[in-house]
Specification:
6 helices; flat; Immunoglobulin-like; 5 domains; 6-stranded mixed β-sheet; mainly beta; single chain
């Protein structure tokens, strides 16, 4: 009961309103909570004092006796009003209520005279601004238009549509605008219906398309679309994004106007009106955008909490709306200022208060506001403090042990130590925000803690709290100490051979190197003890070329990182340039200038080469042609000398035939691999006379092979010594398998044709 009644909350908050000039106005505000509760009002952030014109009622509401948009002194009762409630637990501020004066301007669009043929469409429009939005009605011949007639459509924005015109529709029209501020009449306009309905074809045409609208949820949107044509076009609606329009809350007014009731944010989009010629794909389109706004509303309200001193309090406030609302936090009615121990996160939706104390006890409010409206929610922070809690731990000291370790020690509190169940050590980098703090729990009998895994050369802050089952002590004094520095870690080193005298050393920057000032590079021939270097390189350098090296030896390259604490361990690599030299000898680098010059003449060389090749081919063809002709002439001379006396067969068989110095054995050996003369070809080339048909055909050889020297000897046989001699082949013995003797291989021609 105490927890509930200690809350201070609004039951009724003031709301937006439109006030009438010289009429009274009441703004309501009702609060519940622990009494006494004080209620006050503000307008535009300024306190309202009771006066004859404005004063507060007993229930906390504000009464304005005679509302005036503009007073004689230049002041106005228009503005943003809020209600503030306060008790001894804190202060609460209501949402802002926007109060505006009811007004009505003159008509800025009046209906215009129109002459339309029978069966056509007439449209009249009048526009006027006012608060609240004026209601516009139409009169014909000084009488209200009959809205029961389906051919008459009245749209909320002051539009009158008449379709399927008839002669009786002719008349004088005007509109009447009404709201709580005034009543006004527009100018008159005459409608004349002429002729009879025409049967001439007319393409579909949209006279008026939808306007761009910005409305609020739960309102009604009317998207106008009026089309003409002959035949009468069919009007249809769609969304540009392809999503279905739906059916719930959707209605068609007249012949094509789209009305959407009870708007939601999902109705936002671009709507397309299409006028289609019946039975065809002929169409005309027009489009307009609909933007639906939603006032800010809470998805998650902040909750009142109670926390012990020194702990962390977190409030969460999540709001939604269209456009997305902005969130502001108040503390006891004042805008909350962030600090080291008060942080806002997640677009102000999360409020965190670290290391709370009694001064943080208050009412915290979350205000969500956008162009469609505002809302607020509140929660109270209660800081728990129990009597008899331990006093803060004493004599907190921190000593650096190494680059990553600090030892923290303390002494027990001076008062109320019997109920202590343990200590909590709070650790944070001195440069980090409070929310980056972390804790380590320590038993009640331990008065020192070794904190490890710290970063070198970094300052840390420490404080201690003693805990009991009823809460924690206040924090001890904060002590700050830095870890020792350490030398950097070993860098990773890579060696790349550039050419026969140069190598490139590269390394990768890494956070593992720690804080370092730069690098030192050394190199030497492996058989020498003296290094060349160090070459000092800045911390942002990651490569260095070592030049003028000897390609015949192996080199050792060493790299290390250093800082103010000294040199780190080095990384060593060995490299040889000998393989590069060998590759250069085997694959010499191109002479780019020479190649460029060669390229310039390559085209000419190719053309000359082609000409030479063609010339050679022509000469070869001519050579073959004349050679074949000479062969025919030679054979003809041979035919004339076939009457030469023949050598007796016995003599031929005994001695054999010797041509060009080759024995028959040599010739037989040669016939196995050489070219053989086809006797049929000789018969075709040299037709035999009757006296010559009995003669046998012989074999002519133009070459003989000298086997011992493996050379080809060529001799010439004069034509007058040339003769064809018949030779009977010797019978071959049967093979070991008793098969028939093999036939002698035919001679396919001379070895030297022509």
């Amino acid at each position: 009961d105490f927890g509930r009644s200690s809350e201070l909350a609004f039951v009724v908050e003031p709301s937006d309103d439109i006030a009438v000039q010289e009429q009274p106005l009441i703004l309501y505000c009702q609060v519940e909570g622990i009494q006494p509760i004080t209620i006050t009002w503000r307008k535009n952030g300024v306190m309202i004092m009771d006066s004859e014109n404005a004063f507060m009622l007993a229930n906390g509401s504000l009464y304005v006796s005679r509302f005036q948009q503009l007073r004689g002194d230049g002041s106005s009762d228009e503005g943003e009003y809020d209600c503030m409630a306060q008790n001894h637990y804190g202060l609460l501020v209501s949402r802002k209520a926007k109060i505006q004066a009811a007004t009505m301007s003159d008509f800025h669009i009046h209906p215009q005279n129109a002459v339309v043929e029978e069966g056509g469409v007439a449209r009249f429009q009048c526009q006027i601004h006012g608060l609240p939005e004026p209601v516009i009605l139409w009169h014909k011949n000084s009488m209200p238009v009959n809205t029961d007639n389906e051919r008459y459509t009245l749209l909320p924005k002051g539009v009158l549509q008449i379709t399927g015109l008839r002669a009786e529709d002719s008349g004088i029209f005007h509109c009447v605008a009404t709201n709580i501020a005034n009543v006004k009449f527009s100018r008159e306009a005459r409608l004349t219906v002429s002729g009879s309905h025409s049967s001439v074809y007319k393409d579909p045409m949209i006279l008026v398309g939808p306007e761009n609208l910005t409305l609020t949820v739960h309102q009604t949107a009317v998207l106008e679309c009026i089309a003409t044509g002959n035949p009468r076009p069919i009007v249809s609606w769609s969304r540009l994004d392809g999503r279905p329009i739906g059916v719930e809350g959707i209605q068609v007014l007249g012949t094509g106007n789209l009305m959407i009731s009870d708007l939601t944010v999902q109705h936002s989009g671009i709507y397309v009106c299409a006028a289609n010629k019946p039975g065809t794909r002929v169409r005309r389109t027009a489009q307009g955008s609909l933007v639906v706004q939603a006032p800010a509303e809470f998805v998650q309200h902040p909750q009142s909490i109670s926390r012990p001193v020194g702990t962390t309090a977190i409030f969460t406030c999540v709001a939604q709306g269209e456009p997305p609302p902005q969130i502001t936090w108040l503390r006891n009615g004042q805008i909350l200022e962030t600090s080291d121990h008060i942080k806002l996160k997640n677009n102000n939706s999360t409020l965190s208060i670290y290391g709370i104390n009694q001064a943080d006890e208050a009412i915290y409010q979350c205000l969500a506001e956008n162009s469609a409206g505002s809302t607020q929610a509140s929660a109270r922070l209660t800081v728990l403090w129990a009597d008899g809690l331990p006093s803060p731990p004493q004599a907190v000291r921190a000593e650096t042990v190494s680059a990553t370790t600090i030892q923290v020690s303390w002494e027990k509190p001076l008062q109320n130590t019997k109920e202590i169940i343990g200590y909590v050590l709070h650790i944070r980098k001195a440069a980090d925000p409070v929310e980056m703090e972390y804790q380590e729990a320590v038993s009640k009998s331990t008065f020192q803690q070794l904190v490890t895994d710290l970063e070198p050369s970094t300052s840390y802050s420490f404080y201690i709290k003693a805990y009991t089952s009823r809460g924690a002590s206040k924090a001890s004094e904060v002590t700050v100490v830095s870890t020792l520095g350490e030398v950097p870690a070993m860098p990773s080193l890579f060696i790349k051979v550039i050419n026969s005298t140069t190598v490139q050393a590269t390394w990768e920057p890494s956070i593992k190197l720690g804080q370092h000032e730069g690098f030192k590079l050394y190199y030497r021939k492996v058989h020498l003890s003296q290094y060349t270097g160090p070459v000092l390189l800045a911390s942002n350098v990651t490569a260095y070329n070592i030049t003028h090296l000897d390609a015949s030896v192996v080199y050792e390259v060493k790299l290390l990182a250093y800082n103010q604490h000294g040199d780190g361990n080095s990384t060593v690599r060995f490299v040889s340039l000998r393989e590069t030299v060998e590759r250069t000898v085997l694959n010499p680098p191109c002479d780019c200038m020479k190649d460029e010059q060669n390229n310039k003449t390559s085209t000419t060389g190719i053309i000359i080469g082609i000409h030479i090749g063609v010339t050679c081919i022509i000469f070869c063809i001519l050579f073959l042609m004349f050679g074949y002709r000479g062969r025919l002439l030679m054979c003809k001379n041979v035919q004339e000398q076939l009457s030469t006396p023949q050598i007796p067969r016995s003599q031929r068989s005994a001695t054999g035939l010797v041509l060009n110095g080759a024995t028959r054995r040599d010739r037989d050996d040669r016939d196995l691999n050489g070219k053989q003369l086809d006797m049929n070809e000789l018969e075709r080339l040299f037709p035999a006379s009757p006296s010559q048909e009995q003669q046998e055909k012989g074999i002519m050889s133009a070459h003989s092979l000298s086997a011992p020297h493996d050379e080809t000897q060529i001799s010439t046989l004069p034509l007058d010594e040339f003769s064809i001699i018949e030779e009977q082949p010797d019978p071959l013995p049967k093979n070991s398998h008793g098969s028939s003797p093999a036939a002698p291989a035919p001679d396919h021609g001379p070895a030297n044709e022509g």
